[in-house]
Design brief:
2 copies of one chain form a homodimer. The first copy, chain A, is an alpha+beta fold. Chain A has 2 domains: 86 residues, Aminopeptidase; 136 residues, Nucleoside Triphosphate Pyrophosphohydrolase (Alpha-Beta Complex). The first copy, chain A, is 23% helix and 36% strand. The first copy, chain A, has 7 helices and 15 strands. The longest helix of chain A is centred in the N-terminal third of the chain and has 18 residues. The first copy, chain A, is elongated. Chain A starts with 5 loop residues before the first strand and ends in a 7-residue tail after the last helix. In chain A, 41% of the residues are buried. β15 of chain A pairs antiparallel with β11 of chain B. Chains A, B: This is Nudix hydrolase domain-containing protein.
Chain lengths: 279, 279
């Protein structure tokens, strides 16, 4: 068998693998293999890894090799996660209960509370979704892309849906909801943004109509009045406008163990200007 | 073809499907089908759906039918997501750019800041992970299960890792990091919990050692001093203990459009007791 994905150890073909941080191995298949030959190779690899005391075995299979999926499943693997171009399968060798980490469980959405100097709030009606056709005015919302920071994603979504340039101010609140998309959950971050431009250019594909609406008029909308979440959005947004509310703002942190930056969102006002509460 | 997954319309077999909220259809395959017959059936279905103006086509394929994956991929489907027992594939019929929502992108982790009446903080050393074997004391952390609320998951994790019963107080801060697990991102919620019991019983599988440590001793640990994120954790945790810091606490909200409850986390102190900031 002449494959770049396997190495010959005596008469046993073992798939090329790299170790992970948890006593397991990761195999990234790239070259096409004959399914029969692949199955033999996988069986031999599992024997070898068992002897080595390997625990979890990951196989990353590009979509071009979809014909091998059933052969991997036949060896006791299950699906861990999938992205458009690949499927990740996993298997646990020991007899003990597995400690394979769960798949990503949440989509991350953002909503933008944007109010201009004339006390008008930026609102839209969407072309699709559960509220379409109801005349329901809502703040611009969207979904964070893979690898995108919350503070960047919300500015991008407002620009895409309404054409308005903004700068990020603060996360005012967040909501966790379940079973929002198949079995997946949703984390929605409500953000205050400061508008930097004022001429609306709505996104044709997703937005029915967009406008700056006087905030009192928005607060009095019957559908907003009846929508519990919108009322919370208004309450924290108005409190923030009056400067009596502190949300969370991002601080860049460097990890010590892996070479990576991330952002921690915290109540910076209370850390900088500590004040005893009236509670 | 005698399958519960298809219906015969004249001489065209069309797969049984239900409409989604976005002009698409969802097919849930359950019964095994001969791969060749299935391919013909899928081709006919796609023609029919194209005529009907259907946009997105979802196929949920149980792992037992893994042999059909390649036949679905051959018709232009790609992977959307996967869970242990099934693979979800998707295809976009129109010539326009697709508006298929992204897969779940984030795992949700929690960390618990638990301090007892003797000003001791609950800390652990883990058996695996990037900090194993370094003598690094950290607060108990874990990953939220599918469908689990943050305030419930963090209490469960503390109980599992240390045996300590707690009650949830507040989310003090959160961190978003990328590429933390394959290409997936991570949202980590730092929570303040109030301890309800004191006798530690550590989890054998994951925890090397667990203890109540005087908080000044913890703050002086060299590895904590050098770990930027731990310093932020300490700063907000200590500010909260001194009652000068407001995080986010959960409020139950009912959705108006779908029959579902969720929790919004917000700065309840500032809403109840508004006070002008010193900024």
């Amino acid at each position: 068998m002449a494959s770049t994905d396997s190495s010959n150890r005596g008469n046993i073909e073992v798939l090329k693998a790299v170790n992970d941080d948890h006593g397991g191995v990761i195999v990234e298949l790239k070259a096409p293999m004959d399914p029969g030959a692949f199955s033999m190779c996988l069986k031999a690899s599992l024997l070898e890894w068992r002897n080595q005391g390997i625990k979890g075995v990951w196989i990353k299979l590009p979509i071009e090799l979809a014909g091998l999926v059933q052969h991997i499943v036949e060896e006791g693997f299950w699906y861990h996660h999938a992205e458009p171009s690949y499927l990740m399968l996993v298997h646990w060798i020991p007899a003990t209960e597995h400690t394979i980490p769960v798949n990503a469980t949440h989509r991350v959405g953002v909503g933008a509370f944007v109010v201009n100097d004339r006390k008008e709030i930026l609102v839209v009606q969407e072309k699709s979704g559960t509220s379409r056709g109801l005349g329901f005015w809502k703040i611009p919302t969207g979904v964070i892309n893979q690898g995108e920071d919350i503070f960047a994603g919300v500015v991008r979504e407002v620009k895409e849906e309404t054409g308005i340039d903004t700068e990020f101010v603060e996360v005012l609140a967040f909501r966790q909801s379940h079973s929002s998309f198949f079995e997946k959950s949703d984390l929605f971050f409500l953000c205050m943004l400061h508008p930097l431009s004022f001429d609306i250019q709505k996104q044709e594909s997703e937005i029915e109509v967009a406008q700056w609406m006087p905030i009192e008029k928005y607060a009095a909308e019957p559908l907003v009045q009846r929508h519990e979440f919108s009322k919370h959005v208004l309450a924290v947004g108005l409190a923030k406008l009056e400067n009596t509310y502190a949300g969370f703002s991002p601080v860049c942190v460097q990890s010590s163990f892996v070479d990576q930056q991330s952002y921690i969102y915290l109540n910076g006002r209370d850390l900088e200007h500590p004040q005893a509460t009236s509670l």
